[in-house]
Amino acid sequence: MGFGNAINELAGGRNPAALGRRVFREGALADIVGAGDVNIFQVTGGEVMLTMMYGYCTALITGALTTHPMLTPVSNATATDMCAISLTLEAAVEGSILSWDGLITDALEETGVGIGTPFSANTQILVPGTIILRTAVAATVGAIDWILHYIPLDKGAVINAL
Length: 162
Prior knowledge:
Layout: H1 3-10, E1 21-25, H2 29-32, E2 36-44, E3 48-73, E4 80-81, E5 87-92, E6 96-99, E7 109-113, E8 124-126, E9 129-137, E10 141-152, E11 158-161
Antiparallel strand pairs: 1-10, 2-9, 2-11, 3-4, 3-5, 3-6, 3-8, 3-9, 3-10, 6-7
């Protein structure tokens, strides 16, 4: 058995390299303590394919947090939903995963401690711009780290945490 087949079997038939590059952004209470937009990632240098994005609660979240990610393209500065239905959290414990399946029409969900929903076959093509976290109702306590995976579609295309 070749090395590629061994990795394929370990990953349950899915190539882990297919997720692409990983970018991590450390969260803070300041991200979710007030209603408004917070810049979390920047897409530059060309188009990318987003293969996975999820949040990880690093501290207990209290208050009725209502939030979801959006992309603001450089070309027109009009925010576009990356997932159209906001998540409303009354309380999320440390270790909870916030995720969605990648469909723009679906909801960001708290999927439980240590459990996330993968993008499966649903990827998103992003143009240069800023990925923001739009919060309508603020939390009083808490923090969310954000992790995404992407594949550059243009030479020089990257995503950086802000």
